[in-house]
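DM between two lab members

TW: hey, do you still have the NADPH dehydrogenase entry open?
JB: yeah, one sec
JB: this one, 338 aa:
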Amino acid sequence: MTKKLFSNYTIKNVTLKNRIVMSPMCMYSCVNEDGKVMDWHLTHYTSRAVGQVGLIIVEATAIDPQGRISPYDLGIWNDEQIEGLKQLTEMTHVHGSKIGIQLAHAGRKAEVEGNIIAPSSIPFNDEMRTPQTMSLNQIQETIQAFQEGARRAEEAGFDVIEIHGAHGYLISSFLSPLTNQRTDEYGGSKENRYRFLSQVIEVIKEEWEGPLIVRISANDYTAGGNTPSDFIYYAKEMKEQGVDLVDCSSGGIVPASIDAYPGYQVKYADQIRNEGKMATGAVGLIVNGLQAEEILKNERADLIFIGRELLRDPYWAKTAAKQLRVEIDSPVQYSRAW
Ligand code: FNR
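TW: and the structure you got?
JB:
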């Protein structure tokens, strides 16, 4: 019998050949500090396409140079960066994988020279710099930069855009009351804290008609922070705005200890999917085909995001197929080996 992990999934107008998604993972490999795609990125992502991943999501890619986690991050803040990204989408398409890009701004967790910005001037911890409180002008400029990023993603031939709304980076720091202490229309109530993400979604939609995913941190793990039930509200808002799927991660807002056991974030994907009526992706210590199949068949999530296991094993789709005792396609060049 076919396994759900290897069944098609249509997200808006794009059909994935299976439910396996490569989770976005920073490679910090732009050695020239210009945010351009290097040979490393071409090799690294194309290997996972050869390995039969259904959807590859390229690492957090900065929409503004001040929004980089490090000087070595990929960027999508100028038109010169489009060419390398286009090469990347073309090379992965050859192998039948779809490819998305995670549009990101690191906010107060940016580690580049110069000013860092956030909704409020609160540093992440004692070692990190204190960000400048964003003016309304800076908020508008940053929203504009997300729009430009989406236009470039479209020109580069991506199939999916994922907005990075997790892990305490800029968007996530607007959503959380722990990091957003603004008293204007961008802070205070849940509705106000959602406004920045809402406006980012609206401008992206002006440039982008394809599938839109938002990655969230469904739990701040700290008193006074966002909890999974807050994301039922946010997910409903996102659905109304036309977001197709919520990728359910957690944490990273403030230093907090997290008990990371196998599948520790699946319950968030489950709750948002079944209470929030929003398609979800599950991520976090999912390492085995049986584990992935259990999550899908029990309707706890629609897609399975695999992070580190795909760094260890670029052919994880093959490994999972063996664990589930099914055969899946291989590149014709490898047909004698598998
Ligand atoms: C990550 N993660 C991550 N998340 C994200 O949203 N954008 C990113 O760019 C990165 N970068 C990144 C780099 C590296 C080296 C690792 C290991 C992780 C988090 C990642 O996508 C995933 O959510 C977690 O690793 C949990 O899933 P796994 O690894 O347990 O399958």
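TW: got it. Residues 4-256 form a domain with the TIM Barrel fold (CATH 3.20.20.70). The chain is about 35% helix and 15% strand.
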